[in-house]
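User:
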Amino acid sequence: MNITQLFILIVLVLALGTALGRIASKLFYKYEEEEMAKKAKFLIKEAKKEATKIKREKILEAKERFIRLRAEFEQNIGRRREKIFNEENYLRNKEQEITQQLEQLHRKQNALEKAREELDQLRDQRIKQLEKAADLNIEAANQQLMEVLEDEARSNASIRIRTIVDEAKASAIKKAKSVIMTTMQRIVAEQTIENASSIINIEDDTLKGKIIGREGRNIRALAAATGVDIIVDDTPKTVLLSSFDPTRREVARLALQQLIQDGRIHPGRIEEVVAKTEKNIEKEIRDTGERTAIDLGIYGMHVELIKLVGKMRYRTSYGQNLLHHSREVAQLAATMASELGLNTKLAKRAGLLHDIGKVATEKSELPHAILGMELAQKYREHPEVCNAIGAHHDEIEMVFMLSPIVQICDAISGSRPGVRREVLEAYAKRLRDMEDIALSFDGVKKCYAIQAGRELRVMVDSNSVTDEIANALAFDISNRIEQQLQYPGQVKVTVIRETRAINYAK
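Assistant: Predicted structure:
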């Protein structure tokens, strides 16, 4: 066999092998496809079985849950039916009781009508008997009685009118002082040194020259930056700051103290220190307002109202700090509101904000109560709070229960003995006058004004004052106090007559 034949044979063998490989591959692939088809059919069949099983289980679960929910629903319906049945029985019993009570009331009403008729008959009989005995008819007797009552009414009316006039005069003086002080602190006008000035003590009078500066440039720069008048006179070691605005006066005081401590006093430094002090004061005002609101449990208040509350720290009224007064009114109002079952949170807000008009920056000719009410309305406070602010001095009508509470608490805080200088002096004088009036009567040994002037205890001599005289003495002392003194509320006069029996066993 030559090479050509061998090559041909090899080619034929390779071709045959390739053909056989292709046939075998096709057969193998066909077999694989059949196996895969069988597997797919099997898996589909198993999946259908599993789905049928799951479906059956879910249906069973749904049925069981439905049965359970239906049982619970029936139980709830049964309980509600039982409750409704019990309530119907209760209402039926109450209806029977009310019916019985109505019947009893009808019987009592009939009995009262009969008794009234009998009383009318007896009255007519008595009137006829009295007419015969007094030889007067009913019209003449009524005429005499009316004349007596008219005289007594005129006398009481004159006494009452005199009392009202005296009280009006006393309150008018006090109100006038309050109005004048409020006006002086809100509007540019002359003011007393106590309420419009601050005094700064310096170590050496040579510092006055630095404060004034060359040709007065330092003092002019300080006055222009703060809006405060700086008075440097012959008073030793003293510089006086005068301003109508207490906040500006405080800024000037702190700035001047810092400049004196630093030693560098010139216009540029003055403007720098004043600007820094103003920022610190503004921050302190806001912090004070926020702390006050948090301490009282007041939340959600507008930031401008918070700033006005902080400014109250620098305001006084007859020597009483306005912020302390407002906090006290808020606490009193909350306590009183809780006793009456009202909203204590609104009472605190109204008490804290009732004098907010005194520190308002707006230039207005309105009373501070009306101005405060308008500010509260502007910053969307509750209508009850707004009405309480505007009505606490009777400028507007009180339409909510909270308004008279705030007015009362404001009066309590302002008239508390010792809280204001003018009130303290009048209070002490009133106590002395009460005791002097009681000591002016015969038989009085000692007397004491107690309970902040609301009660007068009078000790009398038991030998010269009898029980009947003691009663008359209490009446006379109370009348004398009404005629000669002016005081809030009422004064209880208690006359004490003590008899002691003493013996000794020997």
